[in-house]
User: Fold this.
Amino acid sequence: MKQKCIICGKTYDVNRPLWEKVLKPKNTYICELCKARIQYEAKEAQVPPKPM
Assistant:
């Protein structure tokens, strides 16, 4: 099953189990690289700025 990442736009071949396709249809897909980037940016946003 080919899915397109909603952030970077690349197309990936995603193998999902049959039960997930039937019971949990998911139209959006975020690739692993974009997930890691979002997680890093969220952690950095939580750090308070250092005083000068």
